[in-house]
Amino acid sequence: MPIDRSDLGHDSLNDVIAVYRRGIDMTLVRQRVAMTVEQRCETFLRALRLVEELRRAGDELRASGRASDPS
Amino acid sequence: MSDLPTILGALSEARVDFVLIGGMAGVVHGSSRVTVDVDCVYSRAAANIVRLASALAPLHPTLRGAPPGLPFRFDAATISAGLNFTLATSLGPVDLLGEATGGGTWEALQTESVTVSVFGRPCRVVTLETLIRLKRAAGRAKDLEAVAELEALRDAQRED
Q1: In this complex, do A29 and B119 lie within 8 Å of one another by their Cβ atoms?
Q2: Whole-model pTM?
Q3: Could you tell me if residue B159 is inside a domain?
């Protein structure tokens, strides 16, 4: 959802970003920085394939009508 | 299913002048955020538009979110008549931008980009500093969340 920035000055935007920043694990960030671009791209592709597989499994589950039936 | 390497490969092989921005550019700079679309700012030069049209036409682009059956022909004439296109292709979503919010045209952005090997092909990607500026200008909640990570990456790089 777009933020109405007419009410947000530069400082307010920075405040929002600072809140998001608190949740970032800098140890993981440093790991990423240490990777080559090719390594980052390969890691990304693996994550993307995982996300797509999970989405496919979710679609299959909903289509089966068992999404709300614990078993 | 998104096939980002093939999409980027098609653009690269056709020698399309473009700069990668958005989430994929973030990945190049170390972002862990998973994105499924390719966002690129392309040159509006007539010859480049012809190359762009021929590169992506085999992927059968349609306008994302358009009503079914809405006539749309993806060719050089259509690209010339428009500017920014959000497309669905047979290999995944592609956003073609003649001009990016906060960043301007390909001419402006190519001077703020670097060429890197992406999936084994040379690809022009906006610098981390420019990507942060573009995300700030876009200003959606998800962009500001991305800015937080990108600024953390920038700070970590400076520590090195």
Answers
A1: no
A2: 0.88
A3: no
